[in-house]
Amino acid sequence: MTDLQTRDFERELQFQASRSGGAGGQNVNKVATKIELRFDVQHSELLTEEEKAMVQEKLANRINNEGYLQLTCQTERTQLRNKETCINRFYELLRQALTKQKKRKATKPSRASVRRRLEGKKRQAEKKSNRGFRGDY
């Protein structure tokens, strides 16, 4: 897989600024610092068809009905820093979505680990059996 940073996704990203919600004093009510990043997965020229399918499958919960991958950032106090945070999160999400997961190889537990597990179970059973009511002594 080629490095995602070398592809120029910046030209395919759409940004929209709005006022952040929640508490924050005077500044939050008049400054549009919240950034919403939108990326059209299906019409991207930088992703191959295989990559598009992987992104759509793995990031389905972040893709809306129009086919846009959406991210919002409102943690920082400035629009520029929120934009940078959004772009970094976008690249991280793409990297995770395009990373193929290795197949798991089934293995047997070692003899020693089985023995340790059974010994632990035996100790626990003994501890619990000592707690019970014994009757007349």
Automatic annotation (TrEMBL):
One of its GO terms (biological process) is rescue of stalled ribosome. SUPFAM superfamilies: Peptidyl-tRNA hydrolase domain-like. Its EC number is 3.1.1.29. Residues 101-120 have a biased composition (Basic residues). PROSITE patterns: RF_PROK_I. The keyword Hydrolase applies. Residues 19-35 form the Prokaryotic-type class I peptide chain release factors domain. The keyword Cell membrane does not apply. Residues 121-137 have a biased composition (Basic and acidic residues). Residues 101-137 are annotated as: Disordered. It comes from the Bacteria. Keywords: Hydrolase. It is an enzyme of class 3 (hydrolase). GO terms for molecular function: peptidyl-tRNA hydrolase activity; ribosome binding; translation release factor activity. This is Aminoacyl-tRNA hydrolase. It comes from Pontibacter diazotrophicus.
